[in-house]
Amino acid sequence: MLWRDSHPALLRYLRVAAPEAAEDVAGEIWVQVVRGLAGFRGDEQAWRGWLFTIARRRALDERRRRARHPVATLMELPRDLEPRSPDAAGQAMENLATEATLAAVAALPPLQAEVILLRVVAGLDAEAVGRIVGRSPGAVRVAAHRGLRRLSQIIAMTGVTP
Amino acid sequence: MTGFGGWDGDMRNFPGLPSGGIPPNGDAACEALLDGHLPPADAEQGLRPLAEAIAALTMAPSARELAGEPDARAAYLARFGPARATRGRQRRIRLAASLLSVKLAAAAAVAAGGLTAAARGKPASHSQMTGQAGRAGRRDPGEHARMILARCPGTDAPAAR
Question: Rounded mean pLDDT of chain A?
Fold first, then answer.
């Protein structure tokens, strides 16, 4: 199923691109995908390109919306109002390596973070990423390589180890 | 601008900082990492932490990341699933019913023509005879209806009475 294959990657991208509302934005993206799926033609690479093009636009919309209408985040809520679930601790431990790396990637400049996620998480090549972010493949490669070097520095300095 | 001729989003790496294990001309290593062709086990010692971080980005999904699957499946089925199939099935049943009524009407007309001719003392025409023998004589209308419905995929023929 397309959802099972693509949703985790989509969420990981959105946790950096739209961290305040990754789940909500992902839901909106799938609604748009279902509406447009009948008209989609292409292979797996084209599918991922299409999906992440929608994701990027939605993430940008969300960032603009948040800039216009700031909302209180969970960090600002009193502790007794925070939602809790019995397995919260277990979920926090689960996939800790991925979370730690996503946090390190989120510390990169936006373009570098985005191209690394689109290359690694979405599995797109430099040409496809260039079409999505509106840059040349060469510029995408430069940004990705710089991002990797900086990510490596962050890992070395902060001791983030997946 | 950063003052070094680059955009804010593309600030240069400061030469004094460690490169974190990536060799100065490590473009090939970077591309291998980005393409997923350099697993941590195959990476050089200095590059291993970065390789592990990149590998962590593509780890198998957690249960939390797949938690929305039932909702997504329900939303998809609502648009493409049984509801649509049911509409198509209903359309086929309507089509079969209209075909059936046309055929029954034709059979009735042929039978009525034969009866009229017999009442007038004229022999029924060849087409009227074959019509009577072919349609009414060979099988009953209920069987005929079941046969037509059975030809339409996705429809259930009514049970024999």
Answer: 86
A65 inside domain: yes
* 3-state class (DSSP) for residue A108: coil
Domain presence at residue A85: no
Substitution target in A101, A102, A116, A158 with the highest count of B β-carbons within 10 Å is: A101
- Give the list of residues 6+ apart from residue B46 with CB closer than 8 angstroms, or none: B20, B21, B22
Whether the CB of A137 is below 8 Å from some CB of chain B: the reply is no
pLDDT tens by residue, B44-70 = 888 999 999 999 999 888 888 888 888
B18 closest CA partner among A29, A110, A128, A158? A158
Question: Tell me: the pLDDT tens digits for A28-48?
Answer: 999 899 889 889 999 999 999
Which residues in chain B are closer than 8 Å to A33, comparing Cβ atoms? Answer: none
ipTM: 0.80
Structure-block tokens of residue A53: 């093009």
Q: Residue A68: pLDDT above 80?
A: yes
Domain residue limits at A118: 2-77+95-158
Could you tell me the CATH number of the domain that includes residue A112? Answer: 1.10.10.10
- pTM given for the model: 0.63
Comparing B14 with B106, the larger pLDDT belongs to B106
CA distance to A26, A137, B55, B56, per residue, from A38 (Å): 19, 30, 34, 34
- Whether A6 is covered by a domain: the verdict is yes
| Strand locations in chain B (E) | none
Residues of chain B with C-beta less than 8 angstroms from the C-beta of A160: 53
Give the Cα separation of B16 and A58 in Å (integer): 38
pLDDT in tens, A80-139: 444 445 455 544 544 688 989 999 999 999 999 999 999 999 999 999 999 999 999 999
Which DSSP string do the residues of A129-152 spell out, in sequence order? HHHHHT--HHHHHHHHHHHHHHHH
What's the structural domain count of chain A? 1
Is the CB of B54 less than 8 angstroms away from the CB of A30? Answer: no
Does B65 sit within 8 Å of A8, measured CB to CB? yes
